[in-house]
Each structure stands twice: as C-alpha cells, then as structure tokens.
Amino acid sequence: MSTHTATAISHPNIAFIKYWGNRDNALRLPVNGSISMNLDGLFTRTTVSFQPSLPFDELIINGHEVAGKGLTRVSYILDLVREMAGIKANAEVMSENNFPAGAGIASSAAAFAALALASSQAAGLTLSEGQLSRLARRGSGSASRSIPSGFVEWNMGSGDEDCIAVSIAPPEHWALTDCVAIVSSSHKKTGSTEGHAIAGTSPLQNARVQDTARRLEICRNAILKKDFEAFANIIELDSDIMHSVMMTSNPPLMYWQSATVEIFHQVREWRAGGLPVGYTVDAGANVHVICLSEYAKEVEKRLRELPGVSNVLAAGVGGAAKLV
Ligand code: PMV
C-alpha cells in the first residue's frame, strides 16, 4: 500500500445540556442526551498518514511526540478504522490546536472529531456524518458533537449504531458568543473519563438523568425560538445540576474555585440588569459565559475586570468538522 494521507479540521464545543456518565463506558454510550454549540475560530487540525513502513502508530501534538495513554487512545480509534477499511498499516498522526492547552476548552472533543474524519478518509473510507459522529464518540463522548455543524444534539440512541449527534440549527441561526473566563487554577483536575465512571455513585445522578428529557426539550426550544431568557435559565440549571452530581460523587469532584462562584453571582446580576448572559461550566473551574454576540465586547470587558479572571477567550458558533 502506498502512503495515504488526509487532513481534517474541527472545532471544540460547549455543552448547554451536559453529558455526565455512561451506560457503557467502553462504547461511551451516555446515560442522557446532550446539546451543544461548536466554537468558531478555535480548532484542531489533524493529519493522518498511514505508512506500511512504520513499526507502530506515532502521535505528535503541537510538535511534541506523545506516548502512553494519549497514544493508546488514538491507536484505539485507528484500530477501529483499520478494521473497517481492512488495512494493517500503522499511522503517523500530527495534531495542532490553535487554542492554548489548559484554557478551559476541552481539546478532546475537537481532537477526536478531527481524528475520526482524517483517519477514515486517509484509510480510503467515505463515512456518513452519522458514522463519523459514532466513531468520534469512541474516543471522547463529546467529540460526537463536534462532527455536525452549529447547534448540535447528541441522541443517546438505543445502542452503538444510533448513538450519534445531529445538527439542530446551522451556525447562522443564532448569533451567540461564548466568552470563556479563564480562572487561574493550580489544582489537578480529575479527567472526564474517570468522572463519567463515578457519576453513578452520586445519589443525585438518577434524579438528574430522569429529568434530562425535560431540560433537553426546554433548551432545544429556546435555541429554535431564540428565547435567550429561557436559554440562560436552562443552561445554568443544567450546569448546576451536573456539578451537584460531581460534588456528591465518591470520591467527590469539586471543580469550582471561589472566582468561579463569584462569576455566577455577577452573571446573574448582569442578566437581571438587562444584559443577555448566562453561564455554564464543564469539568474545570473556567466559566463559559454565553451571550448574544452583539453584547460580547461588553461581556468580555466586564469579565476582565473581575478578580481571579486571568484571560477571556471569545468564540461564536462554529461549523462542522471538515477535510482540508
Ligand atoms: O467527552 P468527555 O468524556 O470529555 O466528557 C465531557 C463532559 C463535559 O464536558 C463535562 C460535559 C459535556 O457534555 O461536554
């Protein structure tokens, strides 16, 4: 086999209705559906090149060779692709992010979406959007949502085959901006893979899961109708519920810093004062402050003035993963 190469770009995403906990950890089948938007301007660019002469898979992220767990996770996706394509060659994977590591933006979503697209293409496969979403999911659950465009819903499905994400509205549907307030944190975080595995130990997880269909519907409708007040209320509720589960799991996961909570108070005050803003937080201390894009400059300025905020990154609504 000659050398087969492909390059793909994909955006990270921020969840409005969160994914936390799997019903199957190996297949990354979630216990509930989720909704997100892709983050424009931020991306991972990944080139995969299958080379029969390589003795093993190689992974280079931002110019540095990566071994251990990171490589194992990538080889797991490459194995699925090799099996589908009926090839044996090892691959060189070169990946670059244009956003800083530790910036409070989950890089794994963009990384596995770009890897799924580039590796399947390089192996000679042409997968549908659903098949790509399913493949990306095996690397990181939230990566399934970085395959389709704009506002995306990941359906829990009945099993592996229909557990895929679909676009519910294109990027131009609603001009929202995610202003990510970076809160300095020296604490070592528990990664989401470990977090999902202990979600069920919280006595609150069942209640969260039972109520998810209701929150999904409110969030989906708020997006479709561009009802910011309903949208802000539901994303804050959903984020607070997920963190309640995290804090009450065994071992407990406390991702918030005092600056995180201070931003919650400010955001609610600003909204009460007429500024269209709402907050949501992933498995970290940084706060994603979502606003109508016309107010993004004002929100960014206010966030920068708060104690404990070291930087603010702003991103609009991004498109689908694509080949370049
Ligand atoms: O895809 P993972 O395993 O990194 O999990 C993502 C978990 C959250 O970011 C906290 C929520 C979400 O839905 O993105």
Describe, in plain words, how this protein is organized in 3D.
- Strand 7 (58-61) and strand 8 (64-66) form a beta hairpin.
- The protein folds into two domains: 5-172, 2-Layer Sandwich (Ribosomal Protein S5, domain 2); 175-315, 2-Layer Sandwich (Alpha-Beta Plaits), CATH 3.30.70.
- The model has no long low-confidence stretch (mean pLDDT 95).
- The chain has a six-stranded mixed sheet with strand order 8-7-9-6-1-16. A four-stranded antiparallel sheet has the order 2-5-10-11.
- The two termini are 23 Å apart.
- It has 324 residues and is of the alpha+beta class.
- It has helices at residues 68-85, 107-122, 129-139, 192-198, 205-210, 212-225, 228-247, 258-272, 296-304; strands at 4-10, 13-17, 22-24, 29-30, 34-38, 44-51, 58-61, 64-66, 90-97, 151-154, 165-169, 176-183, 277-280, 287-292, 309-315, 322-323.
- Bound molecules: (3R)-3-hydroxy-3-methyl-5-(phosphonooxy)pentanoic acid (PMV).
- (3R)-3-hydroxy-3-methyl-5-(phosphonooxy)pentanoic acid binds at residues 15, 18-20, 34, 106, 108, 140-142, 192-193, 196, 282-283.
Unreliable stretches, pLDDT < 50, 5 or more residues? none
End-to-end CA span: 23 Å
DSSP helical segment count: 9
Structural class call reads alpha+beta
What features would you highlight for this structure?
four-stranded antiparallel beta sheet, 2 domains, 9 helices, Ribosomal Protein S5, domain 2, Alpha-Beta Plaits, alpha+beta, 36% helix, single chain, binds (3R)-3-hydroxy-3-methyl-5-(phosphonooxy)pentanoic acid, 324 residues, six-stranded mixed beta sheet
